[in-house]
Structure formats: structure tokens, C-alpha cells
């Protein structure tokens, strides 16, 4: 490339020189007069001199450029040769490393073959020793290998049978525990879903009021109305900040129901005064004697049957049994109690006969018949019995503590009624107070204090009770006159 540039530069300079010479010759040949010819000659000579100077300059520049290009090419060639030498050295090193690795692999392969040979020899020796020991054992034990194998298998079978029986026992216990836990979970879920009031009407009742103003009218001036109602019924009347209700507390459900009926009538009528209270209580006593109900498990049979039906249905839904059958069996399980005053016999059998005669499904009638039995003909019958037990075992139902509590309050009232001059005695405040109503003609004001001390002394001597009991003797004097 540098040679071509040099040649082109020379040719360009030569062409330029030739052109200048031609121009100068033309000028000289056409010169018309001497001065013009002389000037032309001078100009031609100057042009030739300039052309020669330009030619030298161009040639010098071309030579310098060619020299620079050649030096750059030489440097590039040197760099390429240096890189080739470096790559050749690396290639040589890699070849040497590969040769070394190949030599190492050959050595390892030889070592492995040697060790395999040693292992094969040792294995063969072990087999020989094993065979020799086997023959020696057969000679000593007088048993063949098959006989020894049978003995070992028999022993292993016995051990395996023992382990299997042990494992079966453990699994059975584990499954029993899981079944118990699952049963508890199902019963707990059913009880939680039922969401019934476990605080039943065993000791308290609630009377709704139309407004809170009625509380003031119920209390009366200086509390005379509420005192009169408590004295007539023997029920503790609780008037608190709870809006719209008044709570009646008494261990005796009959007294509590009498007070509830009387108070409901007074609230409905709106006329609340001692004379009206006495009249309402008398009417409530007459009504309650006519409408006494049977009670079971601390509540009415109806609410108990509803609770058992709901519980049985929820238990059936948890275990996959027939929900409708379980509910029907729970609702009807105590229906025989409604006929026990007319038909002798257990209420379960009476209920079974009654439901059978009225066309109830056989599976439901058997739930009624078997709800107190240990054997059950269906899963629904078992669930009805379980629901009945759960309902009876709720807090406040069929508890010995309730019976003892009721008996203690009854004994407390009987102790007070045993004194002369006592008309009525009521245990209130959960047995922490006994209110004694005395005859004003038989007991005067001075004797009231002595009677209170005597009653307290007899209660302390004959009865056992926690804490202390307050004895209140009330003497009420009435004077009547007729206006004509």
C-alpha cells in the first residue's frame, strides 16, 4: 500500500511538471514582443521553479508517509509474532499438564487394578474361612444349615409375634385414646353449638318491665311495696341497674313462680300498693296450684326435651348419623313422663308404647325406649342417650350440691317455724338471711329481740352452714276500721 502511494505521488509530480513545462513553452512560443517574451520566460522559469519545489515537497511528504506506514506495519507484525509466541507457550504448557494427568491416571488405574486383585484374593480367603467355619459349626452342633436356619426362623418368628402383639396393644391403646379425644371433641362442639342457657331457672327468675320508671313504683315509698311483696312470697327481689328487668331469687321454684306471676300481674295492672300486692299474691297462689308442671333436671320437661333434641341432632351431624331421627328421638325421649300419673311403669316404656300407637317411626320409638339402657339398636339411639346424659350433667342439673342446698334452706325455715308465735319463715339471700314473720298478738316488740336470739342460737346448734346467717324478725300490726 505504501509503494502504491509513493508511485502515485511521483506520477502526480511528473504530470504537474509536464503541464507546467507545456504552459511555459506555449507562453514562450506565443510571445509577440520582447518584453512579453521576457516576462513570459521569467514567469515560466518561476513556474518551473515553483513546480520543482512543489514536486520536492510532495515527494518528501510521500516518503515520510511511506516510512510511517512501514514502521506501523512492522510494529503490528512484531505484536502478532509476540502474541503467537505467547499462545504457543500456553499450548505447550497445557500439553505438558495433560501428559502429567494422563500419567497420573495410568498410575491410579494400575493401583486400582492392584487393589481389586488384593480384594478378590481377600474375598476368596473369607469365603474359604466361612465355609470352613460352617463345616465346623455343623460338626459341633450336629445340625445342618437348613436345620439351623429353621431354628433361627422359628426364634425370629416368635420374637416378631411378641413384638407384633406388643405393637398391636400399643396401637389399640393409642386408638382408644384418640377415639376418646375425638368423642370429647364432638361432644364439646355440639355443646358449644347448642349455646343454650346453662344457668337455668334453678334459683332465679327474671320479670321484664315496660320501663325503668316501673322500678320506682315497685319499690314504693320508703320501700314499702317491695318489702310487702318479699314478706308475702318469701322471695328476694333484686332491683339493680340492669335496664328493663327485675330479678327474683329463691331456692323454692314454687315461691319464685308465685312471685313472678304476682309481679307480672302488678306490672300489667299498674296499681302497686300493699293491699293490691296481697291480692295478687293470693291469686297467683291459686293459679300456680292449678297449673303445677312436672320438672326434670332442674327445668321443665319441655325445655329439657328441646335441649336433648338439639344436642342429639348436632352429635349426629358430627358422626354422620341421621340428624332428623336423632332430633325426633331426643324431642320425644321423655314423653312418657306426661302419662306416668295415669299409666304405671317406667316412663321410657310408656313413651315407647305411646309413640308406637301414634305411628312414629320404629327407629325413633326405639330411641325413646332405649335412652336409659346400656344396649342400643342404632347409632341414633346411642346419641339420644348421650345427649340426655349431657343435658342432665350440665351445671345446675341433678347435682347433689343443689339438693343439699335446697335441703339446708328447708331445714333453716323449719327451724324458725318451730317457735311459738311464728306465722311464716323465709330463707333468702341464698341462705345467708332468714326472715321470720310473727303474729302481732302472740309476740310483742320486746319478745321479738328475744325470739331472734333464740332462733339464731338453735340454728347454730342444730344446723351446719358456711359463714353466718342473719335472723330478721318482722312484727306487723294492722288496724282496720269500716267507714259508713
Automatic annotation (TrEMBL):
PROSITE patterns: HD (PS51831), KH_TYPE_1 (PS50084). It comes from Geodia barretti (Barrett's horny sponge). Residues 72-87, 93-117 have a biased composition (Basic and acidic residues). The keyword Ribonucleoprotein does not apply. The keyword DNA-binding does not apply. CDD domains: HDc (cd00077), KH-I_RNaseY (cd22431). Keywords: Endonuclease, Hydrolase, Membrane, Nuclease, RNA-binding, Transmembrane, Transmembrane helix. InterPro entries: HD/PDEase_dom, HD_domain, HDIG_dom, KH_dom, KH_dom_type_1, KH_dom_type_1_sf, Ribonuclease_Y, RNase_Y_N. GO terms for cellular component: membrane. GO terms for molecular function: endonuclease activity; hydrolase activity; RNA binding. This is Ribonuclease Y.
Amino acid at each position: 500500500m505504501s509503494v502504491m502511494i509513493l508511485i502515485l505521488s511521483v506520477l502526480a509530480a511528473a504530470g504537474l511538471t509536464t503541464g507546467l513545462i507545456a504552459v511555459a513553452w506555449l507562453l514562450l512560443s506565443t510571445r509577440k514582443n520582447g518584453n512579453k517574451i521576457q516576462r513570459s520566460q521569467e514567469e515560466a522559469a518561476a513556474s518551473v521553479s515553483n513546480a520543482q519545489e512543489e514536486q520536492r515537497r510532495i515527494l518528501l511528504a510521500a516518503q515520510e508517509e511511506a516510512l510511517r506506514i512501514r514502521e506501523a506495519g512492522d510494529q503490528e507484525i512484531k505484536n502478532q509474532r509476540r502474541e503467537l509466541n505467547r499462545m504457543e507457550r500456553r499450548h505447550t504448557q497445557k500439553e505438558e499438564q495433560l501428559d502429567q494427568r494422563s500419567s497420573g491416571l495410568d498410575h491410579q488405574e494400575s493401583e486400582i487394578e492392584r487393589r481389586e486383585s488384593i480384594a478378590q484374593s481377600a474375598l476368596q480367603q473369607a469365603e474359604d474361612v466361612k465355609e470352613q467355619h460352617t463345616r465346623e459349626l455343623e460338626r459341633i452342633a450336629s445340625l445342618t444349615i437348613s436345620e439351623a436356619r429353621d431354628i433361627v426362623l422359628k426364634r425370629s418368628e416368635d420374637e416378631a409375634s411378641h413384638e407384633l402383639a406388643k405393637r398391636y396393644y400399643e396401637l389399640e391403646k393409642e386408638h382408644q385414646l384418640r377415639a376418646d379425644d375425638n368423642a370429647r371433641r364432638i361432644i364439646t362442639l355440639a355443646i358449644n353449638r347448642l349455646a343454650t342457657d346453662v344457668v337455668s331457672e334453678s334459683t332465679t327468675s327474671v320479670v321484664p318491665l315496660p320501663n325503668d320508671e316501673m322500678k320506682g313504683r315497685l319499690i314504693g315509698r320508703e320501700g314499702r311495696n317491695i318489702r310487702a311483696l318479699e314478706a308475702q312470697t318469701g322471695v328476694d327481689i333484686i332491683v339493680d341497674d340492669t335496664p328493663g328487668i327485675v330479678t327474683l331469687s329463691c331456692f323454692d321454684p314454687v315461691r319464685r313462680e308465685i312471685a313472678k306471676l304476682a309481679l307480672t300481674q302488678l306490672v300489667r295492672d299498674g296499681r302497686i300498693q300493699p293491699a293490691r300486692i296481697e291480692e295478687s299474691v293470693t291469686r297467683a297462689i291459686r293459679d300456680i296450684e292449678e297449673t303445677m308442671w312436672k320438672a326434670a333436671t332442674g327445668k321443665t320437661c319441655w325445655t329439657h326435651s328441646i335441649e336433648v333434641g338439639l344436642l342429639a341432632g348436632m352429635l349426629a351431624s358430627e358422626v354422620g348419623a341421621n340428624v332428623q331421627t336423632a332430633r325426633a328421638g331426643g324431642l320425644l325421649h321423655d314423653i312418657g313422663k306426661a302419662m306416668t300419673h295415669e299409666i304405671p311403669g317406667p316412663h321410657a316404656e310408656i313413651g315407647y308404647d305411646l309413640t308406637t300407637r301414634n305411628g312414629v317411626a320404629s327407629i325413633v320409638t326405639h330411641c325413646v325406649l332405649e335412652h336409659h339402657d346400656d344396649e342400643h339398636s342404632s347409632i341414633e339411639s346411642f346419641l339420644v342417650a348421650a345427649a340426655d346424659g349431657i343435658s342432665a350433667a350440665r351445671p345446675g342439673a341433678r347435682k347433689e350440691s343443689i339438693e343439699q342446698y335446697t335441703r339446708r334452706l328447708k331445714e333453716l325455715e323449719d327451724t324458725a317455724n318451730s317457735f311459738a308465735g311464728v306465722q311464716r319463715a323465709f330463707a333468702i339471700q341464698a341462705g345467708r338471711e332468714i326472715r321470720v314473720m310473727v303474729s302481732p298478738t302472740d309476740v310483742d316488740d320486746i319478745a321479738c329481740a328475744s325470739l331472734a336470739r333464740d332462733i339464731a342460737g338453735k340454728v347454730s346448734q342444730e344446723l351446719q352452714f358456711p359463714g353466718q346467717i342473719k335472723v330478721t324478725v318482722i312484727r306487723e300490726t294492722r288496724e282496720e276500721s269500716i267507714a259508713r
